[in-house]
Amino acid sequence: MMTNKEKYTQFIKDKARDLGFSYCGISQATFLEEEAPRLESWLKNNMHGEMKYMENHFDKRLDPRLLVPGAKSVVSLLLNYFPSQQQNQDSYKISKYAYGEDYHFVIKDKLKDLLHYINDEIGEVDGRVFVDSAPVLDKAWAAKSGLGWVGKNNNLIRKTEGSFFFVAELIIDLELMYDTATTNHCGSCTACIDACPTQAIESPYIVNGSKCISYLTIELKDAIPDEFSGKLDDWMYGCDVCQDVCPWNRFAEPNTEPLFKPKPTLIDYNKQQWNDLTNELFNEIFKKSPVKRTKYSGLMRNISFLQK
Predict the structure, then answer these.
(1) Was 24 annotated as part of a binding site?
(2) Pairing between β-strand 23-28 and β-strand 127-130 as defined by DSSP bridges
(3) Please, what's the largest Cα pairwise distance for the chain?
């Protein structure tokens, strides 16, 4: 006969699948001992650039019990975003995760539904949902939950589908059955390190965020430093190079989430059309899109830098 722990664990995983999540893994809410010195060293070496928020809540990033008092379990969830269509070849490039609607809202709604189902089925369970917007080391938790391993490019990778996944968490005060971590399958491969246009992957598993094209085109609010001139590889928002060259991504399957379907303009536009983009068109094309974060002025700054 199944114990309550087993029953609840199965219920959560089944519901996650019903809500459209690709995978669900669960780990015990404890202090992330291995990650602590790595995070400290990364911050000390200023690899976060102007992302000063990374310096905040150091302890909370490493201990989920400081985010949810009495937390027992971290439920990690993956949602595939690999698109079925790619952009026009003669275009400035946008990271695939930003092709559709803003994932923060899409995933948060699914997570809130999941927590609601848990409360309905199991009773009063206290918890919080996290989608890339709070001090949670999501990839570390996903790896701990057996959903993949953290590769040399710091992305979570699965042997069967690669790395084009959003990672989210539900931290709850309910004890569950815990999954075990999987093994690392990067081996001696250095494809991501060799291909990075700005050499942001300074050594295996160490990514200098302040040199990453995603940081330069999204997070950086000032002018892009001239040292990166000619090195952005036509990326106007984000960058997928280290994922595109990863051998495991040859197994990537297109997502089935309707809200991630790209607008035809985003797919069809060529460089000239992006050059002529107006503020009005920007708002139309990127309505509900994560690209809105960079604003019209930020996107045009990136495009003009690409022409240097």
Answers:
(1) no
(2) unpaired
(3) 68
DSSP labels for 185-228? --TT--HHHHH-TT--EEETTEE-GGG-HHIIIII--SPPPGGG
* CB-side neighbour CA atoms (13 Å) of 239: 27
**pLDDT tens-digit readout, 10-45:** 999 999 999 999 999 999 999 887 776 676 666 676
Residue 113 labeled ligand binder: no
Per DSSP, what are the bridge partners of residue 93? 235
Domain count, the chain: 1
Per-residue confidence (pLDDT) for residue 60, from 0 to 100: 73
Check whether 234 is labelled as a binding-site residue.
no
Q: Are 224 and 49 in contact (CB under 8 A)?
A: no
Report the interhelical angle of 103-122 vs 4-18 (nearest 10°).
150
pTM across the whole model? 0.93
> Residues 113, 132, 173, 233: which is the catalytic one?
132
Q: Which two tokens stand for residue 177?
A: 């059955």
Angle at 88 between CA 214 and CA 220, to 5 degrees: 15
Q: Which residue has the tokens 């809410």?
A: 29
Q: Is 234 designated active site?
A: no
Give the separation between CA 67 and CA 127, rounded to whole angstroms. Answer: 9
Full domain range(s) for residue 230: 1-179+187-308
Please name the residues in contact with 122: beta carbons below 8 A apart, sequence gap of 6 or more: 8, 11, 174
